[in-house]
Amino acid sequence: MPQCPECENYDSVIKFGKSRGKQRYFCTTEWCNKGTFTTTNEYKSSGAGKWYSALFKIQTCNKYRNMAKDGISLRKAAKILGISHTSLSRWEADYEEIRSKLSGREALDLWESERNEKP
Known about the structure:
By secondary structure, this protein is of the alpha+beta class. It has helices spanning 54-69, 74-81, 85-93, 95-100, 104-117, and strands spanning 13-19, 22-27, 36-37, 42-45, 50-53. The strands form two sheets. Strands 1-2-3 form a three-stranded antiparallel sheet, with no helix packed on it. The N and C termini lie far apart (47 Å).
């Protein structure tokens, strides 16, 4: 079984069904508040059947935020970016949670790309 990302315990993790084709796990440690989790940072977009990494979602949200500054609507930005407007809206709402799930290398790549975009 995998390690719980919250309490880092191996012994208390049990299988807890599947979600969007990915095995979900649950930590049974009494004081752990993690709940269910998967072992990957990728999420499946239900409409297109594509897998998007957390890094891709954050970069897309950043592109949308730049477009929004220029007055482009969410629907139009989603069309330009080639994703559904509901996915973009959901990613935007979960921005901080998704950003916290980036691995060290993904976070470094994001930081470098954000630094290179600034004038």
